[in-house]
């Protein structure tokens, strides 16, 4: 059985700051802001070796590969099995969890990934290193027929794309189909807090400058109209209870 080491990352260290900043860069969902409580570094020698071998396989097969950091939301009870055995491509979500393919879903946004975590005030999610060589954008699945494999690479049959995505530039949501093409590196424990209201300053007309001084009152500020569209734009719809 694989040995899993989970080590607390102390606040104030470069590692803690790096993971926290990545987590907090896009972490507002359903009017709630996600706040880091603690971070654990994960070490599993067996999984790390398999990930290293898969990296070499990607280089030989596709000629190039990059490692992308991404979030995976899941229930707390699933964390220990994942850290021990890795993500299982056969256990994709049974509903919204397979919107872009029947594999393991990841996101560059912690806010999006949190849709698949426990719905309690405190929860956790996983940060992973993910191998990406060739990404293809695919339409969101709204029916019962889910792609089990990515499309073929043009001119390189029988090779297929290794990654499907909603948007290959932002990688808001992307799916992996290959075993061991991902490696969990950290567990981030977080809590949901009320998100701050976004404001935009409303400047006074020049002709009014002599008649009215600028003060920090409600009349000088207005709620940013784009705030209400934030979740809709990034696909923060209601998620079911399945893992993504």
From TrEMBL:
Keywords, sorted A to Z: Glycosyltransferase, NAD, Transferase
Region (Disordered): 201-228
GO CC annotations on file: nucleus
Residues annotated as signal peptide: none
Enzyme Commission designation: 2.4.2.-
UniProt-listed InterPro entries: ARTD-AVP, Poly(ADP-ribose)pol_cat_dom
Any Pfam family: PARP
Molecular-function GO term, any one: NAD+ poly-ADP-ribosyltransferase activity
Residue ranges of domain PARP catalytic in the record: 1-244
PANTHER family per the UniProt record, alphabetical: POLY [ADP-RIBOSE] POLYMERASE
Record protein name field: Poly [ADP-ribose] polymerase
Gene (UniProt): LOC117653724
């Amino acid at each position: 059985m694989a040995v899993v080491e989970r080590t607390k990352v102390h606040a104030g260290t470069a590692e803690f700051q790096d993971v926290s900043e990545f987590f907090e860069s896009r972490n507002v969902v359903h009017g709630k802001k996600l706040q880091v409580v603690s971070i654990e570094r994960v070490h599993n020698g067996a999984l790390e070796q398999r990930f290293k071998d898969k990296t070499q396989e990607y280089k030989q097969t596709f000629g190039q590969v990059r490692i992308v950091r991404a979030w995976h939301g899941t229930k707390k009870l699933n964390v220990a099995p994942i850290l021990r055995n890795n993500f299982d491509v056969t256990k994709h979500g049974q509903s919204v969890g397979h919107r872009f393919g029947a594999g393991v879903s990841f996101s560059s946004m912690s806010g999006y990934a949190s849709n698949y975590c426990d719905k309690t005030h405190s929860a956790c999610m996983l940060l992973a290193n993910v191998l990406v060589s060739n990404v293809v954008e695919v339409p969101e699945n709204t029916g019962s027929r889910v792609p089990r494999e990515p499309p073929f690479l043009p001119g390189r049959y029988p090779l297929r794309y290794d990654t499907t995505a909603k948007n290959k530039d932002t990688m808001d949501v992307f799916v992996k189909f290959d075993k061991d093409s991902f490696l969990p590196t950290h567990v981030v424990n977080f809590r949901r807090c009320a998100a701050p209201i976004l404001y935009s300053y409303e400047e006074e007309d020049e002709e009014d400058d002599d008649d009215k001084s600028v003060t920090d009152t409600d009349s000088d500020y207005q709620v940013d109209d784009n705030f209400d569209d934030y979740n809709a734009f990034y696909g923060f719809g209601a998620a079911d209870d399945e893992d993504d």
